[in-house]
Amino acid sequence: MTRRWADVAELIATQGLKGRLVARSVRGLPFLLHEGLTVHFVPPTLDGPRTASVRSVQHLGSQEYAVQFSGVSKRDTAELLTGSHCLVARADLPDDFEDIVRSSAEYLSGFLVVDEVLGDIGTISDVREMPAQDLLVVTAPGGEVLVPFVEDFIVEFDDAERVLYMDLPDGLVDPGVLDESSEKEDA
């Protein structure tokens, strides 16, 4: 089943007084917001807009872009959207979007996942696209661990060393799966 929507960007801050927002792409995707694109904001806010069209995009440097949306002309309105993600109809994305998503998953395969508290978790073997967020399938010494691939958990990408440093919530990873003897006991 093909999904109709794609999460392509996160709104991380406001910029200026005229309702511009600072956005960055998610999950290693290229920046896909462009003028005229219709965007749905999730989670929806009670008082803010739920959908808008991109009016303008300006590259700020690094991975950040200033985006102006229709109907968002004041800082107060923009502040309501800070922290939201931008969902876009897949039909409105480039024809090679599925290839981009697959290459992003392929790129992450083999990265070592290291938690700030638990240390080495294991190696990414797959990325599963889920409705809320992608899941990293991490092969640990004692089995498989599913880790939500969300910005809040990511501390640092070390592309050179192929290490993804994360700050995972307590209880997400069973410490037993980090021990090779766990897999032998289950067999």
Automatic annotation (TrEMBL):
Cell compartments where the protein resides: Cytoplasm
Ranges of residues in domain RimM N-terminal: 8-91
Alphabetical keyword list: Chaperone, Cytoplasm, Ribosome biogenesis, rRNA processing
GO terms for MF: ribosome binding
One of the GO biological process terms: ribosomal small subunit biogenesis
Cellular component per GO, a single term: ribosome
Key word RNA-binding present: no
Chain ranges of the Ribosome maturation factor RimM PRC barrel domain: 108-172
Lineage top rank: taxon: Bacteria
Keyword Cytoplasm among UniProt keywords: yes
One Pfam family it belongs to: PRC_RimM
Subunit description: Binds ribosomal protein uS19.
Described function: An accessory protein needed during the final step in the assembly of 30S ribosomal subunit, possibly for assembly of the head region. Essential for efficient processing of 16S rRNA. May be needed both before and after RbfA during the maturation of 16S rRNA. It has affinity for free ribosomal 30S subunits but not for 70S ribosomes.
Family: Belongs to the RimM family.
Free-text comment on this protein's domains from its UniProt entry: The PRC barrel domain binds ribosomal protein uS19.
Protein's name in the database: Ribosome maturation factor RimM
Classification lineage: Bacteria, Bacillati, Actinomycetota, Coriobacteriia, Eggerthellales
Gene that produces this protein: rimM
